[in-house]
Amino acid sequence: MKRKSNRQLLWGVIVETEAYCQSEPGCHGFHKRTKRNETLFGEPGRLYVYLTYGKYHCVNIVTYKSGWANGVLLRAIAIPNEHERIAAGPGLLANRFGLNRSHDNLLVSIENGIWVCKGKSANNMNKIIQTTRIGISKAKSLRWRWYMKSSRSVSKRAKGDRCPSVLQSWQPRLEEGL
DNA sequence: ATATCGATCGGCT
DNA sequence: GCCGATCGATATT
User: Fold this and answer.
1) Rounded to 5, what percent of chain A is helix, strand, coil?
2) Please, are residues A133 and A142 in contact by the beta-carbon 8 Å criterion?
3) Per residue in A9-41, pLDDT tens?
4) Does the C-beta of A58 come within 7 A of strand B?
């Protein structure tokens, strides 16, 4: 994911996500449309940002089509040349990228200063673990959480998964032309 | 009108 | 591993 604000470019590798679908009770859109979750029911490709536990924000990207409350929660991002835990969790991620309720419903695009593109990490050399979602009390059996096994920036590892002692397999590199 | 509950995190045991 | 912070949304009276 990349973010450009005040002429500063901040980017990192999305290393952990969770999926939420209107048809399951873990989703904010499961019950009904409200002022808070309105964006989740809207156009795909937009940010759904909400306040959780009174102090943290969670950033989602709306998926599927309008009328369906489906989205992907961005849980962790590994940022080159920064502390590996700086965005190792939904609240930390939102904080580091400066995203809050004011960014709710923002279209993910270069023009808006926040976008996602495919990088070198997206190859089959990076093993992806699929497991159950974190911090929810409903629909706990759904295995709709994915994270990069080799990354030390994942919020929390699944039982039995070991964090590698070596650094991430991806190499920090500065990009040109942005 | 009042009570309960979080898609979390940091501190403490 | 457990607990409290903190407040908006939702449920209950």
Assistant:
1) 10, 30, 65
2) yes
3) 999 999 999 999 999 999 999 988 888 899 999
4) yes
Confirm whether any atom of chain B, the nucleic acid strand, is less than 7 Å from CB of A42.
no
Protein contacts on strand B: list nucleotides below 7 Å from a Cβ. 5-10
pLDDT in tens, A72-108: 999 999 999 999 999 999 999 999 999 999 999 999 9
The DSSP call for residue A171 is -
b/e sequence A3-21, b meaning 16+ C-beta within 10 Å: beeeeeebbbbbbbbbbbb
Tokens of A137: 């009390």
d(CA A127, CA A165): 16
A137 CB contact with strand B at below 7 Å: yes
Give me the phi and psi of A40, to 5 degrees please.
Answer: -60, -25
- Give chain A's radius of gyration (CA, Å): 16
CB-proximal positions of chain C, under 7 Å: 5-11
Domains in chain A with CATH codes? 2-148 (3.10.300.10)
